Amino acid sequence: MKRALVLGVEHLMGASLCESLTQADWDVLGIVSSTDANAPILANLTLAELLPEDVDFLYQLAEEVDTVFFHQTYENTSNSTPFSLETIISLCERLRLQLVITSNYYDFSPNWLPSLAFWRKKQPIPVSIPAKLLERLEQASQRCEQIHLISLSHTLDCRNDEGYLGLLIKETADQLYIQSPGASHIQHKWTYLPDAANSIVNHLSKGTASEPALNISYYSGHEASIDDIARCLSLSSGKPVKVTPLPWLVMEVISLFSPLFRRFMHLRSIWEQGSIITTKGNANLTIKPDHTPLELALSNAWRNKITR
């Protein structure tokens, strides 16, 4: 039986990975940062509470597994796990483990020419994995069993701490409102985390011995516009949905006091122009969603929001 260590089990990606791994007959050790954490209860899942100072205990637990899963959030901080990505990379180097990183942390540089009045069309903005992260992983891949870096896109979820839709959707007794950050017809890639976790585990379970030491993949997710999301919400909620432009000036004021809104503001140009994934030196393997259509993903996300 394969054995995994999953960081951040109290968060959606960590919990989803645990569920998918146990369903695939993995033995899972999950790390939470609090005994009050909202973690899943699963047959093959053992939970351990660790704080940032418990690095030695983390190494002891890691000696019992062969694969470590770490979800890196956009902010590139350890807010979803008590340990930093560098700590986890060093752990996997020392114990020669397989490391699986899921991330939506990118570098991007908008092209200012499309914003000029005489330019006919705003082009999608190229986004790429940070060069420093790639360099560090190239170095670590010489000592780890194998490293998988799986790039994700916008999170398709209605909770503010997991995705953006909670910021965009407003509800009244008889109607839903969506505030569109850009043109409502622009297509974006969306990641439904439970489906991403299932697709990743299925890919790993098939065997990866023939893949390179550093394997960079892109989870393609679901392509949809705000208009598409509005139609899905109308179906899942049974209410009419109205799409209105997002007041960026109001968002700028709120962002002075909210890290979440600052993150949202930082991606304004991508919302308005869309984005494309670029690679630096490594050919991407695309991991496609296994089965979850956009309508089902959004329906489940919306039901989770209204029942919490």
Offer a concise description of the structure.
34% of the residues lie in helices and 24% in strands. The protein has helices spanning 12-23, 55-62, 85-95, 131-140, 165-168, 193-205, 226-237, 248-255, 259-266, 268-273, 294-307, and strands at 3-7, 27-32, 45-49, 67-72, 98-103, 107-108, 125-128, 146-151, 154-155, 169-171, 176-180, 188-191, 214-219, 222-224, 241-245, 275-277, 285-287.
Q: What is the CA-based Rg, rounded?
A: 20 Å
In CATH, the topology is named Rossmann fold
Q: In percent, how much strand structure appears in the residues?
A: 15-25%
Helix content: 25-40%
Number of domains: 1
Low-pLDDT ranges: none
- Return the structural class: alpha/beta
CATH classification class? Alpha Beta
CATH 2nd-level architecture: 3-Layer(aba) Sandwich
Average pLDDT taken over every residue: 82
Secondary-structure element order, as H and E?
EHEEHEHEEEHEEHEEEHEEHEHHHEEH
CATH superfamily: NAD(P)-binding Rossmann-like Domain
List how many beta strands DSSP finds.
Answer: 17
- Principal-axis shape: globular
Strand count, sense and barrel status of the largest sheet are: 8 strands, parallel
Strand order of the largest sheet: 3-2-1-4-5-8-13-17
Oligomer: single chain
Q: How far is the first residue's CA from the last residue's CA?
A: 35 Å
